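S1.2 Input.
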Amino acid sequence: MTAVSSLNIIESTCYEPWEVQIEPFAVTDQIFYVGNKWVGAYLIDTGDGLILLDTTTAETAYLLLNSIYKLGYRPEEIKMILLSHAHVDHYGAARFLKELSGAEIWLSREDEEFRKTDGAAESGGLFVPFREYSFETDRYYDDSTPILLGNVEIRTRLTPGHTPGVTSFFIYTDDKKCGRIVSAIHGGVGVLTMSDESLDRAGLSRELRKRFIKDCHDLKDISVDICLPSHPAHAPLFEKREQAADGDKNPFIDRDGWARFLDDRVQYAIKLEEEADSHFEAK
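S1.3 Output.
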């Protein structure tokens, strides 16, 4: 896999998207990675239609579509498009894929409201002109009601911080070797949007950072077999893919990985919180 420097990967995604292409691969019998080197997206085969979790950007839509075809599926089989949060790198291709598939688009009610504000564009902090196309949200998540399709169950949880309406997903699927397994995706762990400066610029409460820290601690109590990052750089997803080619065991199964992932990501938010407290005390 050709590396893309972390210093230019965002610009590459916008201006030269072919540079972030990666071959799709199976994580489990029913979950497939169809994202790129920068932004994650997952295709779930429920046995009764497909679920697509996040869409990447408009610029990389053709890469995602090609990945779906390479796996032997067709976009017309997608029944649901689940969006993790209202940033363009995750919903950029939503309009295109909805028109192509006829699938329903899901988003949290909180981020549906947020994406209509001026602060939404400021919140992403990408500073690269990704194309945006309007889309209609068809359904809102209800954390008390699981999403069911085929033999797959997805439980959602509102986990604000990165945006006000970040949604995390706990995906229950069947695996021939391991039986029923749980894969988890935290919908948004990037802490750059949680600095005082970023939150103020987006018109958001600084309490979002505190909520993110609390939720990360609480989420560790949920038993998870596979941790799936919304951005592959946040976890060793690609490294485990290489291991998958070398043995019979599924290297993605790591029952301690979810807690390690949350501990790793929350430390950056805690540091921001400590810096904000010290700045306040200095005044």
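S1.4 Remarks. The domain at 9-282 is CATH 3.60.15.10 (Metallo-beta-lactamase; Chain A).
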